[in-house]
Amino acid sequence: MSIMSTVTALILAGFAAYVGAWYLNIGGIEGNFALLLFLATAVTGAYWVAERLYFLPRRRQAAQAIEAAQQQRRDELTRMGIQQVDGDVEDAKGKLLMQPWWLDWTAGLFPVIAAVFVLRSFLFEPFKIPSGSMIPTLLVGDLILVNKFTYGIRLPVINKKITEGNAPQRGDVMVFRYPPKPSLDYIKRVVGVPGDEVAYLNKRLTINGQAVATSALPDFFDEDAVRYFKQFEEQLGAHPHRLLNDPDRPAFVPGVDNFPFKDQCQYSIEGVRCKVPAGHYFMMGDNRDNSLDSRYWGFVPDSNIVGKAFFVWMNFGNLKRIGSFN
């Protein structure tokens, strides 16, 4: 057992070192939570199986052996006329049956870790909104839930789709792996689906030559920027949503990356026009003049999709934020 204790301590130390290096950004380590959770599930699952098939039966056999020896001793003493027997066999049995610490921290945690793994990988995943690119729909600090099966179930870590699901629709708020750096998750709104011609010229959106309907709303006060922005309601897809425009920012798109299928886009002083290639999506933030989106780094391939965002489950600074959104 001392060998298993040492091995387990090394495994747990490895997990702790990885998490610590990730959190402290030591050596440029980029954490992969999906991979970490998968490995934790696999390791604790192996311990759980070993506990059920090997370690627990051995402890039970040892406890039964103690009980049998104690009963034999009682029988011998009874034959000798001695009725009072010293020793607490139940206490010894309890200590033998107790899981050692290295099983408590592995096999004992497996059911919880496995439940989290299944829930996060195939049903719902929580995210925290880190920036203001989706204001006013989503605010910095919103904790949201993402539906992982609407667009098809994908295998964790490798993100390979195993069921078709529904295709993303214009207007959906989608979480995806940032194409220039897939280790990062981004959240934007689906503006163009495969085959669409998307144009954002002079801060007006058109899809396939048709202007997307918008109507003016009262100005939005951004508490972080401490200023008002022009606010509009836009009908993109089945449900309307709000967006912001900054009249002081030019329509020109500066600092564009060299991305795949860039030849499908034409940039001008007025903005950008793109033809969305097959299997890709054109994404934009609702905070139109403060969003690093497809205008800058290109299209999102289907293989990068994580899921559909649909619910704010907590904002510790504003509980009124809890609820669904469009």
TrEMBL record:
Coarse class of the protein's main subcellular location: membrane
InterPro entries from the UniProt entry: LexA/Signal_pep-like_sf, Pept_S26A_signal_pept_1, Pept_S26A_signal_pept_1_CS, Pept_S26A_signal_pept_1_Lys-AS, Pept_S26A_signal_pept_1_Ser-AS, Peptidase_S26
GO molecular function: signal peptidase activity
Key words, A-Z: Hydrolase, Membrane, Protease, Transmembrane, Transmembrane helix
Coiled coil: none
Catalytic activity: Cleavage of hydrophobic, N-terminal signal or leader sequences from secreted and periplasmic proteins
Name of the protein in question: Signal peptidase I
Organism encoding this protein: Curvibacter cyanobacteriorum
Lineage, broadest ranks: Bacteria, Pseudomonadati, Pseudomonadota, Betaproteobacteria, Burkholderiales
